[in-house]
Amino acid sequence: MDQIIIHVDMDAFFASVETRDNPALRGKPLIVGALPRERGVVATCSYEARKYGVHSAMNIKEAYRLCPHGVYMHPNIDKYRAVSAQLREIWNTYSSATETIALDEAYLDVTKQAGSPEGARRIAQTIKQRTRDQLGLTCSIGVAYSKTAAKTASEEKKPDGYFEILTPEDFVNLIIDRDVSVIYTVGERTAQKLHAAGIRTVRDIREHGKTVIRLLGKQGQWITRLALGIDERKVTPYRPQDAKSISREVTFQDDVHNFELLKDILVLLALCVERRAKRHDLRGSGVTLKLTYADMKGITRSRSALVCDSAAAIYREAVRLLEKVEKRPVRLVGVGVYNLSGEREQQLIMESLFSESKGEQDEEIKQLLDALQKRYGLDFAGHLEQIYQMDTLHKTVEYMRKHF
Q: In the chain, what's the furthest Cα-to-Cα distance?
């Protein structure tokens, strides 16, 4: 094997962490996400809830229809991030490169550390044991010759599973008669296109490769290679500075009609984006505004800017974008920065071209927060750090909406 890759996928991560911390939830159908009377979706759910047909990304009202007796709770993202950091410490012990896909999922290159499939098997079992002993959680692991095969392997025996796919032939034999959706990057829409063309299984992809490429272009070329078991991608550690954009958004429980309220909410979203960017020493040179209207039509508007390194600058650009969009009821608003680069790369631009001082930016944000405090009775002094927590942000926004 040219490379040996492990794919680790935590089992029902959010729900498992909550169950670990509250044993009274054990054995119950637990749904983490929005609450039944709220707008939103399922973030994840326990395997007990999945027996009723509940799954991640499902509309919360549909989840409640399927499982009205379930336990529903909001996610605690900060707690999950802390656990994820502990997981990465375990993973990094055994890999030369770790590519985290989400808080609960990663590819590990163990080629040098393992030396052989047998060595990889020992590493996988050690990771599973340490995860159970140190964190009280379970994970499913796949060992394979490629990233695609490793991910497929980790899904074979969930939960708390282990599976190996050591050669392209093993991979093809495993999936050849499965639906095309088993192939990496084949989502629901792509699968529908292929099904409409009479291509339903991996075998069909292999036999009608030209048709797949004609239908899907470059993605079709990629899919046909995967159907042959070919995937030469390397494990590439994620670096925050490689991100293309950083954003934060909120969904309202009732549609917002007043755009002055949206401007107030943009203050908090801009602060959240600023904090995340600065945590990784990143700055953007463009701002995006995202809106979803009451009829579910979504729009995204963007505006290039010289430097967007402060909440004040992000807020100003977002307001300019907001003033130009159609004024009708909104159910979601989001703000982001793009064209990210590191602090050093933009230092010269900052010094030579950006006329506002940090003190002026801070004063502008202080005035905006003071205005929010007067309007809503919110006290941000000493408590601003809590706004960066997703759950607190949503609660604050809902409070503002109800008291505008």
A: 67
